[in-house]
Every structure is written in C-alpha cells, then in structure tokens.
Amino acid sequence: MPSAESTPTPVPESAPEPDLVPPTRYDKVAAAGSELIGGPLGRRALIGTSWWTPVRIVALVAIGMFALGLIQKAPCYNGGWFFGASSQYTHACYSDIPHLYQGRGFADGLVPYFDKLPGDMDFLEYPVLTGVFMEVAAWLTPGSGSIQDQEQWYWMVNAGMLMACAAVIAVCVSRTHARRPWDGLLVALAPAFALTATINWDLLAVALTAAAMMMWARGRSLAFGVLLGLATAAKLYPVFLLVPLFVLCLRAWKWRDFGKALAGAVVAWLVVNLPVMLFAFEGWSKFYRFSQERGVDFGSFWLILAQNSDDPLTTESVNTLAALLTSLCLAGIVALGVSAPRRPRFAQLAFLAVAAFILTNKVYSPQYVLWLVPLAVLARPKWRDFLIWQACEVVYFLGIWMYLAYTTSGDAHKGLPTDGYHWAIGVHLLGTLYLCVVVVRDILMPERDVVRQAGDDDPSGGVLDGAEDFFAIRSPAHPPRHASRFEGPQVEWGKQDAVDSSP
C-alpha cells in the first residue's frame, strides 16, 4: 500500500464558470464588427484561460476610448478655452471644467457651499458629493503659473479622475450580467460616451450607479442602497431607480430587500448631505434652488416650444408641467411593471425611468447621455439598436456646439442656425424614444428580449432573478430558471438568414 506521504492530496474543483454569451454568435452587427479583429468567436474557443479576460479587455478598451476623447479636446486645451468664445464650439471641444475652476472660486481657495462666490452665482450649484469631487481635484491642481496654466492642469486632473470612473463603469456593466461580460464593450466603445465624458462631472454619479446595479445583481441589497444614495448625493437622477425597484419588489414580494435598499440609500445620502445642510444650508440648497429657478434650456423640447412661441411659458409653468409629465411617465412604468405578462428585468425599467426624466426635463445637456449608456446596455444589449441611438446622440453633440458657434460668432454666423438646432434636438429625442420603444416591446413580448433568449431571467435583478410572481394584474408567466447553455440564434456567415433580424 502506498504511504500517506505518497498519496496525492485531492485538489478541490473550482466552481464552474457560467456559460458565457458571446455577442458575435447571436448579433449580426457585433459579428460584422469583429471581422476587424479576426472574426466571430469560434465554437471551440477557450475563454478566460489567460490574463486577457473579457472584463480586463473591456476596461482597457474603455480607457483607450476615453483617451481618444481627450485627444478630441486637444484644440481647446491648446487655447480654445481661453482665446476665443466660438473656437471651443466650432471644434466641439467645450468643457465646463476649466471655466468653473475660476468661475466657482476654486482658483481662489474658496470652500464650496460655505464661501459665497462673487457675482451672480452666489454658491456652487452642484450636489454635495460632486462638489467634493471638484474640491479634491482643486487640491491636486498646481497653484503656480498663469490662470490659464492652472485651468489646464485642473482639467487634466479631473480627466484622470474621470477616467477612473469610466473604467469602473465599464467593469461594473461587464460584471453585472455574469454570462454577458462582453456587453461591456458597448459602454467602452460608445462614441457619445467618449465625446461627452469630460464636459462635466457626471461620470462620478454614473460610476456609483453602475456599481450599485452590480451590487443588486449579486443580491447585496444594502450595498446597492448605499451606493445609490451616494450616487444621488452626486446627481439627482439615480433616485429614480427606486421607482422600478419598488414595482418589481412588489410583484415578487421582496419587501425586506427593498427596505434594506431604501434604508441604505437614505442613510448614505444623509451622511453626505447632513453636515453641509446643518452648517451651510444656503450653500447646500443652491443646487435645488437653481434647478427650480433656471429657465428652459438647451436640448429639451421645451426650448423648441419657447423659441417658436410669441408667448412662451413661464419657468414656473414649465416646472409644473415637466413634473407632471415625469410623474405620468413614471406612473406608466409602474403600470407596465405590474401588468407585463412576465416580470420585467430591473435594468429595463431602470432605463425607462431615467429616460422618462431626460425626455421631459426642461434641459438636456449633452453629457446627460452618460446617465443612460450603462442602463441602455443592460436593458437592451443589441448592437444595432444601441448604435442607432448613439448615432442620434452624436448628431445632437455636434448640433449644440454648432448652434452655440452660430450664436457667438456675431455677423459671421458660423455654425447651425436655430431651426437646424431644433432638428438636432428632434434627432436626440427620436433616438431616445426609439430605444424606449424597443425596450417596452421586449417587456411586452419577452420572447424577443435578447437577454432572455439566452435562457436567463433577470441577471441584473439579484433576489428578483427567477423569483415567483406574487402580484401581477395579468396571470404571471413563470419561466424556467436559467438555461445551462446559450440557446439563442447563431451567426454563421453565408447563413445570415438564420439570425434574428427583428428590430
């Protein structure tokens, strides 16, 4: 008999990796695009056997695209922000970041919310966590040289911090759907994402929201709530995710998890806001007062109405109507959530909730597209539909800068006139509505949902994934839990008619 010393110690087997869903096997556009890097993934390809895992590749691609976005801003960095109002628009390289370094007192060492600013803007008009982000970047900015040098450094420091946020977003989206890490490439390669990433500080809230979605997908309800509360402390829009979550937890009767998420969000928001609220209430409330007081602004259908009306609506009327429209849209999402034949996926309703706010709001800054990109990928990871929407957003990105070039170029009138800008707004609205329509169609016809075609139920749903329906207007459809392998349509060149060609 062999001795105990010579008996090999059994090595425990690691948990099997989930069957991945490569987009090149079911999506014609993804398969066609993959020809640039060697073609669709083969059936016998070994995935995750080297350092080059899908998540790492997605992160590196996101950083590379972000860097290309920085290069696109080079004309402004070399003088467009300082030596001409119209050149930063004609080159489409405008950014709020360098302008606000001096305009919001960071160059003078003023403390946000506590120190009053000179001029018309009495306090910083951003939520507290975004203000902290801006202040940290100011601490890291060298204070020597001319004000132009300092503004350039401030933009670069912020760009580095925002690049980290972009990588976090791409990684979180890749890891939210365990079987679909390659969907993160949609985030990484999104052209509007790269073009708008350094216009403002929205990526902070987007990164926290993407991390919250990942936590919920892993069943960590409290962590989801904490991250969502922090995201809401950086930007208002993440709070709208609680509406679809309430509907889905109602339908699945998961009140404990919803309560933990809600409590975590409230406590996290208070931890950030309460100290400033108590000791600098006037500065803290500036963001909320400014949101109410600002008039109809760029990118909204309200602007089209105002610029084509002899008697435009007052700001108070627009505030009331916009709030009413948003509430009606959210009510429609609630009705959709409880009446759909199969419980919708969390990402689907989350995308619709944020899109409803964007479409009905009185302002649409070009960087607001960042709010929707991760949610759109999780809700509808179909390359054709995503790229159609992105093309519309790129048109709007160019349209707003050309319009501002027209309005600031004096008698030269270089750029896009008002009517042309209205068409650009219309393209943005139609592109977003198109994506909303296909998401709603997927909810009403779940057999056409590309995520569920692969055999999943709600991979971003956490405790909702595979849960039974306890409350639904219609008789709920109970699907099988998870398919053991991908059973969707396959792409084989020369046999493309076998691929789902539906919109």
TrEMBL record:
Assigned GO CC terms: plasma membrane
This protein's record includes keyword Transmembrane: yes
Compartments where located: Cell membrane
Protein name (record): DUF2029 domain-containing protein
Keywords assigned: Cell membrane, Membrane, Transferase, Transmembrane, Transmembrane helix
GO terms of molecular function: hexosyltransferase activity
Membrane topology term: Multi-pass membrane protein
Compositionally skewed regions (Basic and acidic residues) per UniProt: 494-503
Pfam families named in the record: GT87
Similarity field: Belongs to the glycosyltransferase 87 family.
Start and end residues of each stretch annotated as Disordered: 1-22, 475-503
Transmembrane segments: 51-71, 123-141, 153-173, 185-216, 222-249, 261-281, 318-340, 386-406, 421-440
Biased amino acid composition, Pro residues: 9-21
Source organism (scientific name): Streptomyces antibioticus
Signal peptide: none
